[in-house]
Amino acid sequence: MPSFARLLRNLAALASLSLFALPALAQDEDNLLPVTQAFHLTSDASQPGTVKLHWRIAPDYYLYRGRIKIKAADVSAVKLGEPALPDGIKKHDEYLGDVEIYHGDIEATVPYTLADAANKVLALDVQYQGCHEVEPKICYPPNTEHLKLTIGGASTIPTDAAPASGTPALASKGNGAALLGAPAATPGTDAQALPADQAFRFEALAKDGKSLLLRWTMPKDYYLYRDKTEIKVSSPAGVTAGEPDWPSGIAHHDEHFGDTIVYFDQVEVPVPLNGADPTKKVELDIAYQGCLENGICYPVMTRHLSADLASGAVTVGNAATAASAAAPSATPAEVAPTPPPANLMPGGEEKVGFIAAIGLALLGGLILNLMPCVLPVLSLKAITVLESGESPAAARKHALWYTAGVMLSFALLGLVVVGIRAAGHGLQWGAQFQQPVIVGVLVYVMLAIGLSMSGVFEVGGSLGNVGSGLASRSGPTGDFFTGVLAVVVASPCTAPFMGSAIAFAFAAPLYVAFLIFVALGLGLALPFLLMGFVPAVARMLPRPGRWMETLKQALAFPMYLTAVWLLWVLTKQRGADAAALVLAGGVLLAMALWWYGRSRGARFSWVFTSVLAIGAVAALWTVHGLPAPTITQVASDGSVPYSPEKLAELRSAGTPVLVDMTADWCITCKANERAVLDTDTFRDLLKQTGTVYMKGDWTDVNTTIAAFLEQWHSVGVPLYVVYPKGGGEGHKLSTVLTQDSVKQALDAATGQ
């Protein structure tokens, strides 16, 4: 970034700090005028071609000349000329440098040209900013008045109601985002924002006599700015705070601050204390600032720390010098981006209502039956339904037990995920596939089911409750656990319509989330319910016969292929050593099941079987301690690895970016890559639009990527976000991509 631009950003940050660090002035705010009374604006459009704007500035207030901005509400209807403003009083501002200000009355004239001469209404947006120059010295937020002027008349028709007399001007901005004073209601809700101490819970620990660990914990949807944090040692002399070791955060585009880094949920920051004596106390002042997403921004919060490095005791209190930390001359501040309409999610994704979410969940669960990650398990259910073809009662029984397994599993999984997120921890759909041991267990399960279907062994009563045999067991137990297994392997898949329903569930009350996940389960189980309860569907099934045994053995091979796919995922997570261990364990498991099938009923046969099974479990558990492989090769698809810092750098440079959050275990991700992202057409499109393709791999646990998913309210991967050329908010794409949808998104982002 050029040095001049960097200087401007630093000045804006300092200006923001000085504006928000005003808690000691709260008792004087009632004496301040509302912004529209402190800077009373009138207009005159009696002379066609020119509009006059007049401000009457109250005593002890001043208006910034350089902060007056006049825009046409509809640029296609009117073209504005350069406003003619009088010269102001020269003033040196500590943060803004040399500026000009106005006192008393001032008048500006603005020439304009109408596209349609018959138009008699002129709509203008007039933004201005000023300050109160005596105690309490504060600056108002930029205020925008929306004017509708009747050409040939002098009256102004306001489109937004002015604040009522006596309303503190510090509480709101023209766009409705709260800025100063007590937190206001969150847009789109009736609830009040949390008090600062609850929204940003701050703790500190003395680690080793030479450093501190600072910790901020935020509830859902609250975030902390990295660049708005300042750490100063007040005593003893000679001790300074070193560079904080910030973890990777979330790249966040702020309408006024530009591209910044923020943190959701919780962040821990080690801070070295240079020159500190491990046997003495250290006094520090910590200033920080954060916001409620799509809501208010809080004033700068300042806390005083007293740390006894010898005992490790740390006390945290409000800084007595918070008021004096404010600049003597208040400066203009900018705040978080204007909140989107209440019915929109980030990136323009429209929220859904309860009924629509139920419908989408039902439809998404139904489509899951067609996903390749679910089809191998459904082959088991197809066999049982065919076997019961001669008995309608048996078919209904199979369908009901299978449905019970599916719906109960979806409900429990949903409650666990939503409960963990409600406790303030991020957890996305399909995250269990990030655990190598779980992936290894599923390899064993698929292998065991395949061997059973191939006739290597049959599950009897003594082994009927062993995990891998449950799904292939006949009767209600087998039907129920086939449904459970279907849900387990379905979770990395995100069917169309499913993402919006799960996102609704994550944000909804617990009982609503429960109903959403039950609807997903009902959709997944629906085909087999129809087979069991609709005679016309049941009659479409072929009659039982010898061919069923052949089909049963043939359907074992999709199970083996699923095990191969899971083994490939494990290789990506923990390398070839992990794959070799699980393969060896799989051989031991196969030998144990083979021996069980051959020696069933023989004396002491269970001893050999148990030894082999224990060996398989031991091989699998060893995988848990293996490190993730180090990947150094350059991506063949031309992508760059995701990092918040790199994304912020690209956006600061005005470069369009397509962020792709993916995982090797995500079937939808791989389908999108094969159909769209790994094609010459897509690579040519990137070159034509100058777009950088940035990819984040969520195959293994990655808190940075998880935070990005949380920021975009994504229930999991895939997640595709396009950031436009020249800055601006990102746009979230559908989870299922097409060549046309990607081209339209990139063309729109680059203005082509």
Explain briefly what this protein structure is.
Helices cover 38% and strands 21% of the residues.
Number of domains: 4
Give the strand order, joined by hyphens, for the main sheet: 6-7-3-10-11
Structural class: alpha+beta
Largest sheet: 5 strands, antiparallel
- The N- and C-terminal alpha carbons lie at a distance of 26 Å
Helical percentage:
25-40%
What count of helical segments does DSSP give? 20
Low-confidence stretches: 1-30, 154-191, 320-351, 460-470
What proportion of the residues form beta strands (DSSP E)?
A: 15-25%
Shape: globular
Average pLDDT works out at: 74
Using only C-alpha atoms, the radius of gyration works out to 32 Å
Number of separate strands: 30
Task: Note the main attributes of this structure.
alpha+beta; Immunoglobulin-like; 752 residues
Question: What this model shows, in words?
Answer:
- By secondary structure, the protein is an alpha+beta fold.
- It folds into four domains: about 35-165, Immunoglobulin-like (Sandwich); about 195-320, Thiol:disulfide interchange protein DsbD, N-terminal domain (Immunoglobulin-like); about 345-625, no CATH class; about 640-750, Glutaredoxin, CATH 3.40.30.10.
- It is about 40% helix and about 20% strand.
- The chain is built from 20 helices and 30 strands.
- The strands form seven sheets. A five-stranded antiparallel beta sheet has the order 6-7-3-10-11, with no helix packed on it. It has a five-stranded mixed beta sheet with strand order 26-28-27-29-30, sandwiched between helices.
- Strand 10 and strand 11 (about 140) form a beta hairpin.
- Residues about 1-30, about 155-190, about 320-350 and about 460-470 have low confidence and may be disordered.
